[in-house]
Structure formats: structure tokens, C-alpha cells
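no rush on this but wanted to send it before i forget. theres a chain ive been looking at and ive put its sequence and its fold in C-alpha cell form underneath. please have a look and point out which stretches look like helix strand or loop to you. thanks a lot i owe you, the record is right below:
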Amino acid sequence: MEKRSLADIRNVTLAGHGNCGKTTLSEAMLFAAKATGRRGSVQDGTTVSDFTPIEKERHNSVSASVMHYEWKNTLVNLIDTPGYMDFMGEAISGIKASDVVLVTIAAAAGVQVNTRATWKAAQNAGKSLAIVVTKLDVENVSFAQALEGIQANFGKNCVAVSVPKNEGPSISAIEDVFESKGGLDEWREALVEALVESDDDLMEKYLEGQSLDPAKLRAAFRKGMVKRSFIPVFSVVAEKDIGVELLMNYIASDFPTAADVVSFKGRSGDGQPDEDIVPSDSGPFIAQVFKTVTDDYVGKLSYFRVISGRADSESQVVMGRSAKKVKMQNIFLIQGKEQKPVTEVTAGNIYSVSKVEDLNISETLCQATKPYRLSELVFPEPMVFLAVSPKARQDEQRISGSLAKLCEEDPTFKVTRSIETSETVATGMSQLHLDIKFKTLKARFGVEIVTKQPRIPYRETITAKASTKYRHKKQTGGAGQFAEVWLRVEPLRSPEGRYEGFEFDSEVFGGAISTSFIPSIEKGVRAVLKTGAVAGYAIDGVKAVVYDGKEHPVDSKDIAFQIAGREAFKLAVKDAKPVLLEPIMDVEVSVSASYMGEVTGDLNTRRGRIQGMNSEGQWQVISAKVPQAEIMAYSTDLRSMTGGEGFYTMKFSHYDVVPSNIAAEIIAKSARKEEESDAD
């Protein structure tokens, strides 16, 4: 493949809701450009982009795939992304690497939940936008109605550029509104009005009724896309190759080039402000990793987009964060699962490099002499929790490393060790997302796991002051142990009024306890912070003060005061009106208006507190604070309530007091478990 300048490269990501035809469209484009010798099928599992065993089995995308083709002397890098919220991280990665996000919408379904999610992700990433309406060859579809729904959700600046000649099963062609010589006057007028909005000179001539230069209108097309003041809407029937080449012509001639969209930010050093990284063929080498995978044959593959400059195997390339040198001997141009070796990488293009273990998502590649650190990709927080453990004892050593590799590949999949519950907890975007990760774990690493609902990391605190004393006395025939501690506890709150933190202080005067034993008392008290005094949960939001006590000139020692401090603290906490705290999550649910009542009612039954509601197009967004214990399986429940037409985001907010009736059940359950453990 010949080298291309930035002006001759287009980077386009296909995004949108599932089953809207993204993969079929990408296959049609590759076949039209003769980038592939045979046209693949999603159902047959033969497409270039859906090549993993899981994708072939499921007949839909679960990861972002990179492809390329050449058309009209232009190189087009195409990224096909998954269409369901379960795999939103992959969509975000693909969007980051592109300049234009081509949002794909099935005509009959219209704007769906993940259409909005990917649209918002593209806007947040500063990318240009275009829309393609697919599946126009089914009964009772109307392109005009589909466009009306698009404009209701995304604005009147979404304007048709190509429209179907006929609709439904009889569709035979897609007509070009821009080049129309008659019959599409209404569509053309709307297009011209949208284009002149981005050019003051064209607007003036248009208002004066002067004729408009077609070349300047074409220039306004790209200019409007760069400014996002103009969103072109195309029509295709990809399965029948109707409208596909027309779309490809526009991508090659009128879409923003790799030099037009300035959407990467970074800094040249610590303490420096972020600045726009302007794409340049001749500038310093700057690239960013947006995806990593582990390949059975070539090892770890890191996909990266070159923003500026060039590099080859002789270049001194380093990671922007660590300054660690990166060897560029194993560089590839990507076509689905195929990797074609190349010797040089150039601005505007997308490549992969193998066998660089420390090269992870968001990492910057740059010149050692001109270091840069690009802003990290921002991913949604995972929302579904499962406690995991190896099925076989021999896998205990391997499980952590294997899970860590999956976490590297997907930032929306996280594995942590809970200090409060002593469980290994995996979190993902949905139950399906986790199921696929565990299936991959078995297929790739041979590790099987068992899962269960994780324990909620409750905490214990107190709501009143209490004082107590505890004497530890032990005589074993030889040297004895003696310590007496008088201890007071009181609630400790943050400026926001939340039970947070721990403080230890001493008010002992007159030598009742030697100063050398005060740290021993504190050590004993702190030991209880982890194990709890009421139900076995960590203690938070407490101040402990030792104010008096006694010691023995021979038998008092460090261990004695540790024990006395520990037991005194337990007694004091139990006398200080203890309560349980539970994690509260910030939840944002997006649904159509028809499901508002059912969703808000359901949140109320989960002890949720509605914080607000607002509209985004034809969708309603509900903000609420909900206890984590009540929303563990919400992904499945919301999908059931809304027929799949609802999604939510969730992140930790704070800890709050558990209602007394629920706390009593939790404490009783904890006591039963302790009794069973003692019996064993």
C-alpha cells in the first residue's frame, strides 16, 4: 500500500445500537473496494470484523475491529464497534481512534438506547458525526419518519444527503441529494440551507438569492462536519449494495480528513496544561494506544493511532508516562484478524505493535527528545458485581494473573480484592459482559471459576458517646500479664456530616499508664477497625480516647495493653448506639418516556431517592441515589422492565446509615454465620 499524507486518510468508526447493520455495512464497503475477495456474512460467521469464536457463535460484535480499504485515491481506516451497552468500552476505544463517527440507525427501529450512548461518547471525544440509515428494504419503513426521529433526538442540523428512490421491499436505488437535477427539490433545499450555515459568504449569497458555487458548497460540507454544525444523513441497503458506493464516495471526497479534526489533547511535561495536539505529517511523533488484545500467535498486540509525525524501527520511541523505550520492529497494518508487517508508521494511520508487555490502553508513544502524555481515555464504571474463586485448587496461583490480562484489555472489566469482605470481586457492565469474560478466561487460559453474589461491604459506626473500662489479667505460673484501660468513643464525621475516618487520642495524665504503652493500646484498638465489633464489618467514623487506666510494675507489658485496648474498644462501640453503614450509589437511568413510571416506581422499592429527571431528545434521564445492596442485579431487571430499551450508569457516592430493621437482619445473619463457624 502506498504511503498517504494526512489529507488522503479518513478514519471512520461505525457505531450505534446492536443489530442495526454495522458489520454488514463494513463488509459491503470492503467488498466494493476489493479489499476482500469474498463477501462475508454475519450469520455464517465469515465477516472480516467479527472473527473471534465468541462473535461467530453469537452472530454479533463484542469487540472493536480495525479494517482498511482504498477508494478514490483515499485510504479509509474503518473501525466496527459493538452495539450493546455490555461492550461500551470497546465502542469508546474505537471512537477515540477515529475522526468521524458514522452512527448507524436501522430505519424501522429508529434511535435506540445505544444510539444515544454512542452519540454522546462521540461528542465527548470531540469527533465529527454522520448518520447512515440502514435496512430500508423492509415492509412499512419510511426514511422520512426515520429522519424525523433522528432530528427529534439529535437536532435539525441532521440533514439528508442521500435518500431512497423507493421504500420497503421495492427499493432499487439511493439518490444523491447533492447532485440531484430535479425531483428532490425539497431535500436539496434543506441540504443547501444546512451547508450555508457554516460559511458566512455562502449565507450572504444565499440570502441575496445569488447562485452558489458547487465547489464552495462541497467545501462547506466538510467544514460543517468539522464544526459539528452539520450532520449528514445517508441511506443504504448494505445487503443489496444499494447506496453503499455513494456513501463511500462521500467519505472519500467530503468527510473530514485525518488532518481536519483536532480531538486529541495532551501535555509536554508534568505541571504543564493540556493542549490540542494538531495532526501533522512532519511534526514530532505522537501516537496513542486505544486497544490491546492477546493473540495466540504473536502475543500481546497494542493498537495505536498515529496523530503526528512518523517512526520506523530505527526511531527512538518511548512511552510518554514512563519514558521506557519501545521497540518498533513488530509493526502491523490491520485487516480484521490479519496482521500485515510494515516497516514505518505515519501520521493519521492506525497500526498495531506486538510483544510490548507494558504498552496498555491510553499510553502515549512519542519521541524521547519531545515527550508527550496524551489525556487518558475515559470509560464508564462497571456496574455488575460477582465474587469469583477458582474452581480447581491448582488454579489459585494462575487466576490472578489471567484475570489481570483480561482487565488490561478491557477497562470496563475490573477485578479487586475487597478488604472488608476478603473476597475477589469482578465487576463488569452487565451479567452478559461478565459471562463472556469468564468464558474467555476458560478458553484462553484454561482457568475455570465459580461465582456468587458478593457480600456487601457494610461498615460499622457509632451514633453516641460511650465510656468503658477493661482489665486484662492473666497469671500462668511464671510472669503474668496485667493492663487496665479506660476508653471513651465518640462519633467522627466529615464536614458533609458523613461518618468517616478514625482518630486515636490520649488524655492520660499523672502516669496512670506509661507513655510507652499508649501505642500498644492504639494498636489493639486499630485491630478491631478491620474486624468490627457488632457484625464483623470494618469500623469507620469513630474517635477513640484513652483517658485513664492502671498498670503493674512487673506484669504490664505491650501485649497486655494491646489486648486491653482491643477489648475496651469493642465494649465501648457496643455501648455507643452502633449502626451499620451501607454503600450508596449514584445511578443514572435513561429510558423512553413510556417506561418512566415503572422505572421510578421500581427505584422507590429499592430504597432509592430520586434526585432529578431531565429530557434528552425523546429520552428521559432519571438520577437517583440507591443502596448498592438493592441494585446488584439491576442490569437484568432494567432490561426486563424496558424490553432492552433502557440503560444506566452507576458509581459509588458515599456511605449512609442502614435502616434499623434491615440492619437487625444483617447483624442476626452475621451472628448465625459466626456460630456455624465456631461449631465447625
